[in-house]
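Hi all, long-time lurker, first post. I run a small reading group and we've been trying to get comfortable going from sequence to structure in the token notation. Rather than ask abstract questions, I figured I'd post a concrete chain and ask someone more experienced to write out its structure so we can walk through it together at our next meeting. Sequence below, copied exactly:
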Amino acid sequence: MNCSLNTFYKSLSVSKQSLHQLIDRRMRSEEEAAYLSLLITQVRADHPTLSCRAMYYKLSPGIGRDRFEQICRDLGYKIERKSGRPRTTNSYGVVRFENLLINMTLTYINQAWSSDITYYELEQRFFYITFIIDCYSRRILGHATSRRMLTEETTLPALKQALRTRKNAIPPGLVFHSDGGGQYYDKSFLALTEDYGMRNSMCEYAYENGKAERLNGIIKNNYLVHYQITSYKELVKCVDRSVALYNQGRPHKSLKYKTPINFEDELLNSPQPTKPKMTESLDAYNRF
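-- Answer (accepted) --
Happy to help. Here is the structure in token form:
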């Protein structure tokens, strides 16, 4: 059998190492396409008439123009659409997790977390902000600001921070909800959710990730837009500041006008805490 395999590799005139490198490059290429698909859909949502060619030069994605436009065609953006909600992600053949949040009733913290990645345009380029929120208390548990959309710079550090916030003690079966972006089905990310017994959940449309989508708008439009941000370093500091202000100083109607931190403190420290039931919202525009 070994002789047959060796003969096969020799007949290909390539080494085993070269063959594995080729496979790795192809896998990396597919992952890169998944990352770009999320960014393209977000840009098109903000600029509905921007052509694919213009997006290519605006984003400078580091890949060939023809390949970039092929990704746009795969997403349906080379064809004019008269109506319909733009797709928020394209999983490129990856099996999507079931949406576990539909009609889910929450009664306590750490039953469901929700996450999303948004972008921030600065100096004619894009940076990325990842949030993880507790769906019950609305507290931002983890966040990451990054230069690239890679898993190790977005969802992975945000999740590790969220786990630290909860002192690495969460109940098994916690639902981790997101869109279908490649960073949420990356093997290193899924390995971490599996280690903590989380149940992965994904939406098909952006409005099915309502709390995370709403949070993106709050941080960008109620906080970051008011700061004089001129560099990536300042963006990181301003995102950190915005998260602290949101968690500690922003009252929420659904929390009886308590801040997320105050709501959790009361929930955890009161001898007989009031535990309101909340049906998970799928509307990104519902008030918090």
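A couple of things your group might point at:
The chain is about 40% helix and 15% strand.
The longest strand covers residues 112-122.
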